[in-house]
UniProtKB/TrEMBL annotation:
It comes from the Eukaryota. It is a lipid-anchor; GPI-anchor. PANTHER family: MONOCOPPER OXIDASE-LIKE PROTEIN SKU5, MULTI-COPPER OXIDASE. Its cofactor is Cu cation. GO terms for molecular function: copper ion binding; oxidoreductase activity. Residues 1-23 form the signal peptide. The keyword Transport does not apply. GO terms for cellular component: plasma membrane; side of membrane. SUPFAM superfamilies: Cupredoxins. Residues 34-147, 160-313, 398-533 form the Plastocyanin-like domain. Keywords: Cell membrane, Copper, Glycoprotein, GPI-anchor, Lipoprotein, Membrane, Metal-binding, Signal. This is Monocopper oxidase-like protein SKU5.
């Protein structure tokens, strides 16, 4: 065989391998340009963070096990990180987009995130994690679809609709940040947005004229999947659609037991999928409502988002009063009982063919226990701070994971207390020492006067219990050991506790935080460090070639040239390259 023929068959084989590899785990690439725009969602012109000039940003739509590359160009006047909330970043906390693992992307730079959505399905969202920027936007949806070979536990919906709800301030996020730095509270929000837009004018007194509102058009008789995310600052919202049932089907990567709700409380950072059948008559449009919960409702009336559900054959505008929120002012257990009713569908398949319930979490022995208590903000060293178990987290100038990689000493302390400290609260970089392949029980005790939601990166944890009062060891008798929902963000009611169980099988450094932006900004977070004592690429991927350096490692950072080098080679580029090589080989052979 001639050398030309050998070259040709080599290239054909390489191209075939590439195609087979791509078919198994395809590459999907996105380009994000993050910049400021001027918008007036509540009628007041203000600075908003957009992605590709859109607010909210574009939706990432991928399938289980896809490799995802997102090239982020930072056109803000401050540093930026994008966090992929709920995406577990298996073996690669390098891509998580929070300060404990990543150096910020400087202004005018770009950086490419590259990760695999390994063994995940469900509804998630991304957002900027620094400087209170989420309060100005920058968020978008992240959908992970089932592979075709894995059936979903309901009929394929006619359409898929992403809905963002969240409280909103007309102040710039920089002004809000200054208020927190000055020891002030943010106060009552100015309104609630639905998909980045203000309320429909359902009330001439409460809603000024000229507000742009969201309209969702649907076909009568069809069933749609609505993926609803609370991307707000700190307000729990009750979500409802006038005259329509919400059939809960999935939350944050887990299929749920399917139950109908007339409304559901969605707390900050949480995501739900509802199946909604358009089974009403089309005599008029219908209200979609997201209203503030656990507040003085008469004073907070303006903190209500209203959008319109419009059938394609609708005969008129929505009218009359809004559908009422739950009447539970004197019943603090209503919302908690609703939360307890959300259960894992143990017979449905998730990202893998085997049923979700084949992981019998209730029969695994707990290896470590942490009681994490938060309370009202307090002054530490003259500054107003928020705490977890008496520790207010201070972000180090060198990310924790980067410090480990380069064996830097003194960047953090691996001494986070398993129980709240008894002495004065302190501000420091103290993190949890998690045991690889351990099974951790975490009790989240909320001694604040407002609702908190807690998120843990890198994992889906099992919500096994919640109740009012102080948690005690006797509380374990109330745990759900069979079908507690697996999710990434759990609510903790004021004066109450929530218990979660998590299997520490994902090596890395993982953020554990309140989702309430003001408290998170003031230090109510920590990290869980999970290290495999056996160094192997099988449990953690190596540091990315395009890693950014800062803090004590700033001298390792190359100049802006990294921005052009960061662009990923996607599937189409590779296919074009090999096609070109094959053509060249043919030309060479037949010359």
């Amino acid at each position: 065989m001639s050398s030309s023929t050998t070259l040709f068959f080599f290239l054909v084989n390489v191209s075939l391998l590439l195609t087979l590899s791509s078919a198994a785990d395809p590459f999907v690439s996105y380009d994000f340009e993050v910049s400021y725009i001027t918008a007036s969602p509540l009628g007041v012109p203000q600075q908003v963070i957009a992605v590709n000039n859109k607010f909210p940003g574009p939706t990432i739509n991928v399938t289980t096990n896809n490799n995802v590359a997102v090239n982020v160009r930072n056109k803000l006047d401050e540093s930026l990180l994008i966090h992929w909330s709920g995406i577990q970043q298996r073996r690669s906390s390098w891509q998580d987009g929070v300060l404990g693992t990543n150096c910020p992307i400087p202004s005018k730079w770009n950086w490419t995130y590259q990760f695999q959505v390994k063994d995940q399905i469900g509804s998630f969202f991304y957002f900027p994690s620094l400087h209170l920027q989420r309060a100005a936007g920058g968020f978008g949806g992240f959908i992970v679809n089932n592979r075709p070979i894995i059936p979903i536990p309901f009929d394929t919906p006619y359409g898929d609709i992403v809905v963002f709800i969240g409280d909103w301030y007309t102040r710039n996020h920089t002004d809000m940040r200054k208020a927190l730095d000055d020891g002030k509270e943010l106060g009552m929000p100015d309104g609630v947005l639905i998909n980045g837009k203000g309320p429909y004018r359902y009330n001439d007194t409460l809603v000024p004229d000229g507000i742009d509102y969201e309209t969702i058009e649907v076909h009568p008789g069809k069933t749609y999947r609505l993926r609803v995310h609370n991307v707000g600052v700190s307000t729990s919202l009750n979500f409802r659609i006038q005259s329509h049932n919400l059939l809960l089907a999935e939350t944050e990567g887990s299929y749920t037991v399917q139950q109908n709700y007339t409304s559901l409380d969605i707390h900050v950072g949480q995501s739900y999928s509802f199946l909604v059948t358009m089974d009403q008559n089309a005599s008029s449009d219908y209200y979609i409502v997201a209203s503030a919960r656990f507040v003085n409702e008469s004073r907070w009336q303006r903190v209500t988002g209203v959008a319109i559900l419009r059938y394609t054959n609708s005969k008129g505008k929505a009218h009359g009063p809004l559908p009422p929120a739950p009447d539970d002012q004197f019943d603090k257990t209503y919302s908690m009982n609703q939360a307890r009713s959300i259960r894992w569908n143990v017979s449905a398949s998730g990202a893998r063919p085997n049923p979700q319930g084949s992981f019998r979490y209730g029969s695994i022995n707990v290896t470590e226990i942490y009681v994490l208590k938060n309370k009202l903000p307090e002054k530490i060293n003259g500054k107003r701070r928020a705490t977890v178990s008496g520790i207010s987290f201070v972000n180090p100038s060198t990310p924790i994971r980067l410090a480990d990689q380069y064996k830097l000493k003194g960047v953090y302390k691996l001494d986070f207390p398993s129980k709240p400290i008894t002495g004065p609260s302190r501000a420091e970089t103290s993190i949890i020492n998690g045991t690889y392949r351990g099974f951790m029980e975490v009790i989240l005790q909320n001694n604040d006067t407002k609702m908190h939601t807690y998120h843990m990166s890198g994992y889906a944890f099992f919500v096994v219990g919640m109740d009012y009062g102080d948690w005690s060891e006797n509380s374990r008798g109330t745990y759900n050991k069979w079908d507690g929902i697996a999710r990434t963000t759990a609510q903790v009611y004021p004066g109450a506790w929530t218990a979660i169980l998590v299997s520490l099988d994902n090596v890395g450094v993982w953020n554990l935080r309140t989702e309430n932006l003001d408290s998170w900004y003031l230090g109510q977070e920590t990290y869980v460090r999970v290290v495999n004592p056996e160094v192997t690429n099988k449990t953690e991927l190596p540091i990315p070639d395009n890693a950014l350096f800062c803090g004590a490692l700033s001298k390792l950072q190359k100049p802006q040239v990294i921005a052009s080098a960061a662009s990923s080679i996607n599937e189409n580029t590779l296919e074009l390259l090999f096609t070109w090589l094959i053509v060249c080989a043919w030309i060479h052979i037949f010359q």
